[in-house]
């Protein structure tokens, strides 16, 4: 069945990510910026990285996703991809790990994160500096994510576009790092 094949692909992708060290690399980027507390991870997939945060930092972490995954490592609620199903200021920190480019309206989702977050929003995502770079990101993203039936609007932003979105959302960048040619980290303060 189609659902069975999707579950098999999830399992293969999980093994592939562990082999490449994806989970530990993301964890090592995020962990120094987290102090436990209540954490929301938007678009968390199975919650593999989040389970490491929960284990090592003793955080109260939960996730939201638009689709249910076979394996869930943390409590995950389904949501519509637009409105986060939580009251205002429910979380100390909100995480977006390589998922904002999967939404059509980045400012709207960041506005929702701002609503439910007391202190900080951490973002790991892609960026590009050339047409070729954007094309390669698009090819990669489509190939990696189409099996998951997630939206693939290829909504990649240049660094200056990221900062414009943050200003529009009234979020202050307290730290920014270009991790590689196409990966960026932002730590945002909620005002």
Structural features, described:
30% of the residues are buried. The protein has helices at residues 2-20, 22-30, 48-57, 106-116, 131-145, 159-168, and strands at residues 38-42, 60-65, 76-78, 91-97, 117-126, 171-180, 183-190. With 191 residues, the chain is an alpha/beta fold. Strands 3-2-1-4-5-7-6 form a 7-stranded mixed beta sheet, sandwiched between helices. The radius of gyration is 16 Å and the shape is globular. The chain is built from 6 helices and 7 strands. Mean pLDDT is 89; it is low at 15-20. Helix 3 (48-57) links the parallel strand 1 (38-42) and strand 2.
Number of beta-strand segments: 7
Radius of gyration, whole Å:
16 Å
- Runs in which pLDDT lies below 50 for 5 or more consecutive residues are 15-20
- Average pLDDT, all residues: 89
- The total of helices stands at 6
Strand order of the largest sheet: 3-2-1-4-5-7-6
Biggest β-sheet description: 7 strands, mixed
Shape: globular
Helical proportion, percent range: 25-40%
Structural class: alpha/beta
Spell out the helices and strands N to C.
Answer: HHEHEEEHEHHEE
Strand content: 25-35%
């Amino acid at each position: 069945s189609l659902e069975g094949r999707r579950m098999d692909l999830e399992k293969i992708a999980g093994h592939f990510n562990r082999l490449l060290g994806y989970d530990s690399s993301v964890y090592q980027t995020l962990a120094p910026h987290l102090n436990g507390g209540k954490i929301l991870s938007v678009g968390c997939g199975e919650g593999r990285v989040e389970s490491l945060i929960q284990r090592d930092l003793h955080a109260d972490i939960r996730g939201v996703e638009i689709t249910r995954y076979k394996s869930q490592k943390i409590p995950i609620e389904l949501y519509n991809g637009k409105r986060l199903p939580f009251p205002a200021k429910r979380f100390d920190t909100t995480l977006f790990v390589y998922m904002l480019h999967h939404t059509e309206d980045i400012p709207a989702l960041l506005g929702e994160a701002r609503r439910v977050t007391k202190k900080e929003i951490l973002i790991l995502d892609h960026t590009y500096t050339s047409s070729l770079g954007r094309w390669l990101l698009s090819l990669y993203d489509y190939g990696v994510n189409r099996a998951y039936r997630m939206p693939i609007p290829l909504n990649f932003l240049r660094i200056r576009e990221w900062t414009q979105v943050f200003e529009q959302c009234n979020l202050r960048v307290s730290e920014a790092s270009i991790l590689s040619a196409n990966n960026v980290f932002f730590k945002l303060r909620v005002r």
